[in-house]
Specification:
8-stranded mixed sheet, 5-stranded mixed sheet, 43% helix
Length: 858
């Protein structure tokens, strides 16, 4: 990987020297089908780049990662590929003012989801291709200048097998066996895209009258593998797409600039989705093979809208370098939820944002690797790791605070000016701040420094003083920050006062105000009746950790389920989970709250998040001596709620899945086996194929389902999805031989695709198999440097994160981690970051276990 890196300084030097006029890229992917001759399977890539150099005679380089280069021609002169190509770069000497570079290469198909990924469907043997480049993998498919600020128009052509269809960013036509695509607008290399294969393809169209009297027509398309066609609800995908296009046109006042709008759901995808203009790619798991809750449909809609927002934030206007990645990802994350609430049936999406997205941000912002939203990105490895909870979820949360700070109208007007001034260009932080300062009349420099250029999360705690008559004499908000990141920020907040009325916990007073500094007195609430609950950051305007005073915490312990407002309830649950992770609330107390109040949660997304948190509490934060008891209580509670849930309801489905994940005893396993066999039934519960696999994994992990059972289930579901499930279940079995085989498949071999690596790791690390996994703690530290050096960065990340011995949760694992870090001070910073993050999670878990143990002994 080091040879494939590109530093920010190199990118700056090249951007100062070169400007690009256009690319012609011709790919021949007919080699994707048929028998391989034993050597790595490759395809032909011929790239022509027209570019200018403002210092004639200077030298530079083009990027390409390929097994071999057949020919290189610069300005009509043939260059020796052996002399100018080193495996990752093509040296360009003595450049003219105007240049033409032609590179004819043999590029490799990918099995890691990076570059041009080749997938063979086990169901029917069909081959499917798609590209994925962010941040810098287009160089695995064609030669280019791989950095976001060297934009250019692209013309692609693809020669594919006769029975295939090919797609790219522009509209395509087939002539003489070649798919030729319309030239794009100037775009960055990392958002170009090619999809090819026998995909199932559905079309629709969108039209909109524009202010100038013309009509905008956008052809729509959606595609997936043929094996998923029976499950493909393209009508719902198109519905959300059209709602999003309406919403963004109304708010952005800049017509969609990229012609058609295709959306491809592709196999073995590493990301949720990618915003390639005119051809957005998604992981195919967003096509649901079994019954899912509305939370899954909401999540899919959010991703569709997130990627659509990128057409403006990221594709039309792009950051200069990855330091300002937030200029696209934070905005798209915010806009995804903003549009979901404003345009679709998912009008409760801000609840999901508060409960789920912010949880991701809070975790990331307390890791040793936390960074400002505007990060210091030294190179491409840094960039890859910065697609994180800070850049996405914290950035989006801060933008929500910004909207409250400047006002929605000023914010949207700023966006409109930003697009018009910078269309097809590249920007930095100051470009956005200048337009927001114009539209809001506020000085943005101090706000930007405090919110965008410093790291860490603040905690806000209410302090209530009562007078002799039981009314509020003074209510203040205390703000704290970690020693490592001491910045105290200005917060626009809503403070809600709640009391019990007829068994309900309802808000009776509300004030929206500014909180700044270590202590802010909220004068507007003086004289109010004494509250039973004070909720700082009610309505979720700012980004902070909510804390509670003693009275409020006691009220929640007894009456959390009585909160009538679903957003307030979600905020309280999130705050209680943060208290648990911060070792301020014993994990057993959080488990108890879930057992007592989760059944009263009306929002299905919040319920599923609570179930996930309860599972995490059991695995990481509960004192070891109470794990068995906690596990049994969760399984009993889940089964009770499963039986009591409304037949056929989403809540019933959620409790069924949670019961399977917590099943502990023979009675539990017996019920799961009977549900699979059809000898037992729960009224309204349809045990479809996806639910069958959810039931089989815990059976496999506890030795109650063997290889024969899993082979029989794969025969029943002999699909790509079924294969992933089977691989995960096989690796979950409680056997030393099984674990050794899984370890070897991931660590010692490169035979598995990215999706099967992910499935094997997920099955390998079972929380109930800590003793069985103990021998791999030492092995982990012996292999990770080699893995990082030898594998692609995506596989390296999967292995380093997924195989860290977090289940060996004791001081010895911390000591081993510290010893590795000490001995590998010169390891790549990105690798050290991953290990440091895993260490921090483990140290946090140990503090939580100590807090939980003290709840008994204390």
């Amino acid at each position: 990987m080091p040879g494939e890196n590109l530093s920010r300084d190199e990118a700056r030097e090249r951007a100062a020297l070169l400007s690009v006029d256009g690319y012609d890229v011709a790919l021949d992917v007919r080699s994707a089908v048929g028998e391989s001759r034993g050597e790595p399977r490759t395809f032909r890539s011929v790239t022509t780049i027209r570019f200018r150099c403002n210092e004639p005679g200077a030298s530079s380089f083009a990027d390409l990662i390929a097994p071999s280069v057949t020919a290189v021609t610069l300005n009509g002169k043939d260059l020796d590929p052996g002399e100018v190509f080193d495996g990752t770069r093509i040296a360009l000497e003595d450049l003219a003012a105007e240049n033409e570079l032609v590179v004819d290469a043999q590029c490799a198909y990918s099995r890691t989801g990076e570059g041009l990924h080749r997938f063979v469907d086990p169901e029917d043997g069909e081959v499917y291709l798609y590209t994925q480049y962010e941040p810098a993998d287009s160089r695995r498919v064609f030669a280019g200048f791989e950095q976001p600020d060297l934009k250019a128009p692209f013309r692609f052509e693809v020669r594919a097998p006769e029975e295939w269809t090919a797609w790219s960013n522009g509209a395509g036509e087939l002539a003489d066996g070649v798919w030729r695509f319309a030239e794009t607008k100037p775009i960055s290399t990392y958002i170009t895209c090619v999809v090819a294969g026998p995909y199932h393809y559905v079309t629709d169209s969108y039209s909109r009258a524009l202010p100038d009297g013309s009509t905008l027509e956008i052809p729509l398309g959606a595609m997936c593998r043929k094996g998923l066609a029976p499950y493909f609800d393209a009508d719902d995908v198109f519905l959300v797409t059209k709602q999003g296009l309406d919403f963004f046109h109304e708010h952005f006042d800049y017509p969609y600039p990229f012609g058609k709008y295709d959306q491809a759901f592709v196999p073995e995808y590493n990301l949720g989705a990618m915003e390639n203009p005119g051809l957005v790619t998604f992981r195919e798991e967003y096509i649901f093979r079994g019954r899912v809750t509305q939370a899954s449909y909401e999540a899919r809609a959010n991703v569709i809208l997130h990627e659509m927002a990128h057409m403006w934030f990221g594709d039309l206007v792009t950051m200069v370098w990855w330091d300002d990645l937030w200029l696209k990802e934070s905005f798209a994350d915010f806009m995804g939820t903003f549009a979901n609430v404003g345009a679709t049936r998912f009008d409760g999406a801000w609840i999901t944002f508060a409960n789920r997205r912010k949880a991701w941000a809070y975790r990331a912002d307390q890791l040793p690797s936390t960074h400002p939203i505007t990060a210091d990105i030294r190179d491409l490895q840094d960039a890859k790791l910065n697609f994180d909870g800070i850049t996405y979820a914290k950035g989006a949360s801060v933008l929500k605070q910004l909207v409250a700070y400047v006002g929605q109208d000023a914010f949207l007007e700023g966006a409109r000016r930003y697009f018009k001034r910078n269309a097809y260009g590249n920007t930095r932080l100051g470009d956005l701040l200048s337009v927001l300062q114009e539209t809001s009349g506020r000085d943005m420099s101090a706000w930007a420094h405090q919110w965008l250029q410093t790291a860490g999360v603040n905690s806000l705690t209410p302090q209530v003083l009562l007078d002799g008559e039981g009314r509020v004499a003074e209510l203040a908000v205390l703000q704290e920050a970690a020693e490592s990141h001491p910045e105290l920020r200005p917060h626009r907040v809503v403070i809600g006062l709640y009391r019990l009325e007829g068994g309900d916990l309802v808000r009776y007073a509300r004030v929206e105000t500014d909180v700044d500094g270590p202590r802010t007195v909220i004068g507007e609430l003086a004289g109010a009746e004494a509250p039973e609950l004070v909720l700082v950051n009610d309505d979720d305007l700012t980004y902070c950790k909510i804390r509670f005073d003693d009275t409020s915490l006691a009220t929640l312990r007894d009456h959390l389920g009585a909160l009538t407002d679903p957003l307030a309830r979600a905020l309280c649950w999130s705050a209680l989970w943060n208290l648990t992770r911060d070792a301020l609330l014993p994990a057993r107390d959080f488990v108890d709250l879930v057992l007592r109040f989760a059944s009263r949660e009306s929002d299905i997304g919040v319920l599923q998040m609570l179930q996930a948190w309860a599972g995490s509490a059991l695995t990481h934060y509960v004192a070891p001596q109470w794990r068995d008891t906690a596990g049994r209580l969760l399984a009993e509670g889940a089964l009770r709620e499963l039986r009591q849930a409304e037949p056929g309801s989403e809540h019933q489905l959620a409790w069924a899945r949670f019961f399977a994940s917590t099943a502990t005893g023979e009675d539990d396993f017996g019920l799961l086996r009977e549900l699979l066999a059809g000898t037992a039934a729960i009224d309204g519960l349809d045990v479809d194929q996806e639910l069958r696999w959810a039931f089989l994994e815990p059976l496999a992990a506890h030795g109650a389902a063997d290889e024969t059972d899993l082979a029989a289930e794969l025969a029943r579901d002999d699909t790509a999805s079924g294969k992933r499930h089977q691989v995960r279940c096989l690796a979950a079995r409680p056997s030393a031989a099984v674990k050794a085989q899984a370890w070897a498949q991931v660590v010692e071999s490169q035979a598995l695709s990215n999706a099967l690596v992910e499935a094997t790791i997920a099955g390998f690390a079972q929380p109930t198999q800590r003793e069985l996994l103990a021998p791999y703690a030492e092995k982990y530290f012996e292999v990770i440097a080699r893995i990082w050096a030898d594998r692609s960065i995506q596989i390296g990340m999967d292995v380093v994160r997924g195989l860290y011995p977090s289940l060996q949760d004791g001081p010895r694992t911390l000591e081993a981690t510290d010893a590795w870090l000490s001995a590998h001070a010169d390891a790549p910073p990105a690798l050290r970051r991953l290990v440091l993050e895993a260490r921090d999670d483990l140290a946090r878990a140990l503090r939580g276990q100590e807090c939980d143990a003290q709840a008994v002994t204390g």
